[in-house]
Fold this protein.
Amino acid sequence: CFGFPLSIFFIVINEFCERFSYYGMKAVLTLYFTRFLHWEDNFATAIYHTFVALCYLTPILGAIIADSWLGKFKTILYLSIVYAIGQTVLSVGSINDLTDHNQDGSPDAIAVNIALSMVGLVLIALGTGGIKPCVSAFGGDQFEEDQEKQRSTFFSLFYLSINAGSLLSTLVTPSIRASECGIHTKQECYPLAFGVPAVLMAVALVVFVIGSKMYKKVKPQGNVMLEVSKCIGFAIKNRFRHRSKKFPKREHWLDWASEKYDKRLIAQIKMVLRVLFLYIPLPMFWAVFDQQGSRWTLQATSMDGDFGFQIQPDQMQIVNPILIVIMVPVVDSLVYPLIKKCKLNFTPLKKMTVGMFLGSMAFVAAALVQVQIDNSYPVFPAAGQAQIKLINLGAVPATVQFQPKLQSVDVAPNMETSYMTFETSKLQSLDIISANQNKTELLKLLQKHRYTLAFKQGPMYIDSNLVKDNVTSKPQDGKSLVRFINNFNVTINVTMDNKNFGELDPLSVSNYSVIQNPGWSYTISASVPHTCTVGSKEFGYGGAYTISLDNCVENKLIITHFEDIAPNTVHMAWQIPQYFLLTCAEVLFSVTGLEFSYSQAPSNMKSVLQAGWLLTVAVGNIIVLIVAGASAIQKQWAEYVLFAALLLVVCVIFAIMASFYTYIDPNEIEAQFNKEEKEEDKKEQDSNEKEAENDSQL
């Protein structure tokens, strides 16, 4: 079809569906841990990076299985089945109603959900990692030797399908996750958010199987990684046997393998080891890079995502693939040629060093954003302190005096004050003075708590109600809190959409209730005794509100909004600079790193370098889970600074290592070996001919 083997279209579609499945699931994973399984941030981060590390360790296993045992087709087929089962198990494990027998909205046996989720993630890691090294190589196998141009176009289409799957899924699955579903109670829809990737993985499997009769299936030819491992192992063992001083030293420790392995293989492994030595500092970059899906997503939950439409915290990850698609051609066609015109020797290793530096700066930017977020948080009372907020629900102004002579505050009608902090040992009472009336309220406040005093002037006396707020921190995960206060003179029943707040006596206050989707508008109803309704204004993300129900005019409820805790004020757009810096770092580091690695190793050793590269990603994620699990750092901005400093130190070390590296041309070395082999073959042929001539003379 258009000069291409028909089979490759099935492979490209399969890759698109598989990448949609993986990135879609991964996008919502951190919030699933924190919001559904209710794990704290550090533990959720550790498990997330354990999963990613496993996804980058299993490709080595997949490559060995494909090259040494099953072949690429069967490896992809069998591990795709494992993959699809894993996605399905994860989706089932996220069903809230699975063990919610008492229908209260919380699983009665959360351990069942956790167990299913972990089994699902392990199967997914085996599946996605196992097929990762096989699919692109299997696609390349479909072409004949004279189809080099078509093969190159296929790889472009292949990587386009990866980016398309990543972009689309990162946009779609967080939106599905933010919707509500459930049998008994409506909550964030994780079963569907994981279910859609599971369906896409099943589609990928079906598409791959449909094309099975068209594929060219190359038989397993042995895995070079095993051969390399055996050669290195033999060299070490042989060197240990001959450790006595009576044995002469050899130029390189790998030369001790020359008794069993030919010189060409040993020379090739030497070239590979020179590159792998440079890989040692690289995991630190991946430790920083892969926190987009964990720490940066958690950071976004404390930010304002209003872009005229609501962006979900886990959708901010889409900035990276969008910038990659834009920046790779820009850098290749504009930046690098400009640097070359300036006659600067911008070698691959220098590009990687600059990439590391930019990665470090990305985390400095993240730290600065985190400081702004922390500064926007409310200050809660410390030990020995309490806070009081005043709400005047009356029609005349009032003055409140805190005794003994601590502070005096004027409160206008239908207005509130901010929270005021007092030492609990000093504050004894307060006096409310409104018009010609006066009321004294004796106080016995608990330390570390917030209180709200609602009051209004009546015909004969001042009515007041002091309530404990029962909120000790800013609402998490971008959710908001709302409560109602009855400003009618009769008992009323209050509802907001399907949520019933119960009956409220005059001036009494309901408990706070969670608003799952603060960006929505809700219908507030009050029975007084006839029903009055009004639409609420949109609530801010991460805020807490008190709504005063004041009056009913022609069945329209008159309400007043009071802000107890300010919503998220730092905009998500402030994350774009850190994403931009990290994407620049990725273009310079990752793309250049693979290009450099492949240029410095023989063609038959590229799979060894790919395995080493993936291993650096896995180790980088292990570094994050160690830091997240063992760090005693309390402030998130300080952890960002720590990672930035570590990467900067590693950047300097890598720059020093790179300065001692000498670039080689593996093709020249290969040609030299070919020349020597031909000379040896010619000598052997001449020798054989001479022996034959002597034999004939005899």
Summary: The longest helix spans residues 110-141. The chain has a mean pLDDT of 86. The CA atoms of residues 50 and 157 lie 31 Å apart. The first strand starts at residue 180 and ends at 181.
